[in-house]
């Protein structure tokens, strides 16, 4: 494990100490958790963006999509236990 030094303003350092105390953690553990959560969120955002880009490319390649209104009605019915017909994909023009 390596050591990294960061400079923190006194007011932020006090806030971190108070927040860490409320959670029953040391300031060090609190900071590590905050960094870890931020990195994980950024990684998830990147994965989400990648999936969205792949789906957008597939939509453009096929030229077909289902409207949000039809999708919403379909999913609502499914969530209530119904077995509705799937919406039909239609031509899409960006």
Care to describe what's here?
This protein is mostly helical and 94 residues long. It has 2 domains: 7-62; 63-94, no CATH class. Helices cover 66% and strands 4% of the residues. The chain has 3 helices and 2 strands, in the order ααβαβ. It has helices spanning 10-23, 27-62, 68-79, and strands at 64-65, 90-91. The protein has a two-stranded antiparallel ribbon. Helix 1 (10-23) packs across helix 2 (27-62). The mean pLDDT is 95.
Rg from alpha-carbon coordinates: 23 Å
The SS-based structural class is mainly alpha
Number of strands: 2
- The count of domains is 2
Q: Strand arrangement, largest sheet? A: 1-2
Which word captures the global form?
A: elongated
SSE series: HHEHE
The average pLDDT score comes to 95
- The portion of residues forming beta strands comes to under 5%
Distance between the first and last residues' Cα? 50 Å
Give the low-pLDDT segments.
none
Number of contiguous helices: 3
The level of helicity is 55-70%
Describe the main β-sheet briefly: 2 strands, antiparallel
Give me a quick take on this structure:
By secondary structure, the chain is mainly α. Helix content is 66%, strand content 4%.
